[in-house]
């Protein structure tokens, strides 16, 4: 619980900093004064209608990606597993690009991405079969990702330059243009998933013992594995449909949470889903802070900065794993 408290306080502090920075700088006193003035205040729209939904979207989408990443790493028993390997992200990207190249914008792109994510999930479940073996799931997800990625690249290569530019920008992953309706879509999925994650953690604790022992404990392995997979896929789909395929967040969140727990002397069994969700939110809020700090007048896509944050971290984690063995990831 101590690690979660530290993460929660850090997230609160970074969220307040994200609200304060931009073309107009606010102190904590300014934030309180704007809230106290209410809708009649001249800065109310800037803070409540523009900045706050952006920050809440970063937190919600980051939590969804972090949760999905931790579920995938535990389910596939691989610390390098990421939500992108499910094929859902590639499906969402394909659906969104189709809509963008058709000339649509706004919520239509989000709906297209959601439909593509559902199609990718359906393809994964159908092609993986009823047994839902780990190797079959991984190979099916990777195959879907490569196939849909190739089709998306083909569409972009043949598109009009302006529309292709819009598609590529969306494929980077961005929090720009956030408003309450988009933010509500993510939180409407994230909040129920937090409850579902409690069930998933119990399932994963038994699955980590091996399929035979899990069956001996009364677990129906294939349906349980499929249930965990659905939770992970729905989580990543809700985030990608709204903010685009922001890279590295799902991959980073689990290792960061475990590293913090080790530093604080906390040893827990099973996946740290709550910690991973908080770390995912932290990563995306930090990326948004980097966006605001570097270009407040021309906001860059947040996905650029998650890549900058994620690549060095991945190298560090791989190096630690090589020195300490696989247990360094646990």
Automatic annotation (TrEMBL):
It is a multi-pass membrane protein. Pfam families: FecCD. Keywords: Cell membrane, Membrane, Transmembrane, Transmembrane helix, Transport. Gene3D superfamilies: ABC transporter involved in vitamin B12 uptake, BtuC. It comes from the Bacteria. It is found in: Cell membrane. The chain crosses the membrane at residues 32-48, 55-76, 96-125, 137-159, 179-205, 226-253, 298-319. Belongs to the binding-protein-dependent transport system permease family. FecCD subfamily. This is Iron ABC transporter permease.
């Amino acid at each position: 619980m101590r690690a979660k408290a530290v993460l929660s306080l850090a997230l609160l502090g970074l969220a307040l900093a994200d609200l304060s920075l931009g073309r107009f700088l606010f102190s904590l006193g300014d934030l309180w004064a704007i809230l106290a003035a209410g809708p009649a205040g001249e800065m109310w729209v800037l803070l409540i209608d523009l900045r706050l939904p952006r920050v809440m979207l970063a937190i919600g989408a980051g939590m969804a990606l972090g949760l999905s990443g931790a579920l995938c790493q535990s389910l596939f028993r691989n610390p390098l597993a990421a939500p992108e390997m499910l094929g859902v992200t590639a499906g969402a990207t394909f659906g969104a690009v189709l809509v963008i190249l058709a000339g649509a914008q706004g919520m239509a792109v989000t709906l297209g991405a959601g439909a593509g994510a559902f199609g990718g999930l359906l393809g994964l479940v159908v092609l993986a079969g009823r047994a839902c073996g780990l190797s079959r799931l991984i190979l099916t997800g990777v195959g879907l990702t490569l196939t849909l990625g190739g089709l998306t690249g083909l569409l972009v290569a043949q598109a009009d330059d302006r529309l292709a530019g819009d598609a590529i920008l969306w494929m980077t992953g961005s929090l720009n243009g956030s408003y309450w309706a988009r933010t509500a879509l993510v939180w409407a999925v994230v909040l129920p998933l937090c409850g579902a994650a409690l069930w998933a953690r119990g399932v994963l604790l038994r699955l980590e013992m091996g399929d035979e022992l899990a069956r001996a404990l009364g677990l129906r392995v294939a349906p349980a594995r499929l249930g965990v997979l659905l939770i992970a896929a729905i989580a990543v789909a809700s985030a990608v449909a709204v903010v685009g395929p922001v890279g590295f967040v799902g991959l980073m969140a689990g290792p960061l949470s475990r590293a913090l727990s080790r530093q604080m002397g906390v040893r827990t069994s099973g996946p740290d889903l709550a910690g991973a969700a908080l770390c995912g939110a932290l990563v995306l809020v930090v990326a948004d802070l980097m966006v605001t700090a570097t270009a407040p007048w021309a906001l860059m896509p947040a996905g650029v900065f998650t890549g900058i944050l994620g690549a060095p971290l991945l190298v560090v984690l791989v190096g630690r794993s090589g020195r300490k063995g696989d247990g360094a990831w646990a």
